[in-house]
Amino acid sequence: MNPGPEEPIIEITASTILPAQREPITLLTADGLTLVGELALPEARPPAATLICLHPLPTHGGMMDSHVFRKASFRLPALADLAETLRGMDQATPAETIQTAVYEVGKRHPFAGLKDWFGCLYQVLLGQQEGPRFGGFVALYGVGETVALIEAALTARAA
Q1: What gap in Å lies between CA 133 and CA 103, rounded to an integer?
Q2: CA 118 → CA 10, 97, 133, distances in Å?
Q3: Residue boundaries of the structural domains of the chain
Q4: Over the stretch 95-145, which tens digit does the pLDDT of each residue have?
Q5: Residue 151 pLDDT more than 70?
Q6: Position with higher pLDDT, 15 vs 85
Q7: Closest Cα partner for 147 from 97, 98, 96?
Q8: DSSP track, the chain
Q9: What percent of the chain has pLDDT over 90?
Q10: Separation of alpha carbons 57 and 64, rounded Å
Q11: What pairing do the DSSP bridges indicate for beta strands 34-41 and 21-28?
Q12: Half-sphere exposure of residue 29, counting CA atoms within 13 Å on the CB side?
């Protein structure tokens, strides 16, 4: 899930168009409205998560510059990366090793600081602003169980 040497990190600005397989999409709402948009999938791999964003048109007072989009664009890939990283560990992995790996995942993603990364983990996975040392939590809760918790959070946000 994290960029490798063949997949460099791209700085995303307002005018950035990311490489993707794109196709038009139409959704019909329960109240009869037709919503049109674009489905953009990664070019070289299956998607790690899905996010459907609806917004009013700029011509009708809307805008795409949203803290919700920014947070989701940071959180979803980072959580998917963490799940993939944890999948490579077994149940006997020491808490400190897990903690180091969680730090490394946070550093690979565009959070303002590691405090924001851990805040994301606590908010999304535990429903609170703060929490225990995450490596210790994973060691006690279980590596597989934590991966399932992350996947459930990704699925809930994609629905």
Answers
A1: 11
A2: 23, 16, 9
A3: 67-158
A4: 999 999 999 999 998 888 899 999 989 988 888 888 899 999 999 999 999
A5: yes
A6: 85
A7: 98
A8: ----TTS------TT-----EEEEEEEE-TTS-EEEEEEEE-SSS--S---------GGGT--S--HHHHHHHHHHHHHHHHHHHHHTS-TT--HHHHHHHHHHHHHTTT-SSHHHHHHHHIIIIISSS--S-HHHHHHHH-HHHHHHHHHHHHHHHH-
A9: 35
A10: 9
A11: antiparallel
A12: 7
Q: How far, in Å, CA of 146 to CA of 63, rounded?
A: 36
67-158: CATH topology is: Arc Repressor Mutant, subunit A (1.10.10)
pLDDT of residue 7: 60
User: What angle, rounded to 10 degrees, do the helices at 95-107 and 134-141 form?
Assistant: 130
Token match 């960029």: residue?
Answer: 3
Query: Facing residues of 40 across strands?
Result: 22
For residues 134 and 103, what is the distance between their CA atoms, to the nearest angstrom? 10
Q: Sort 54 into a burial class: Cβ within 10 Å, 0-12 / 13-18 / 19+.
A: exposed
Structure tokens at 61: 């007072």
Q: Which residues of 59-81 are buried (b: 16+ CB within 10 A; e: fewer)?
A: eeeeeeeeeeeeeeebbbbbbbb
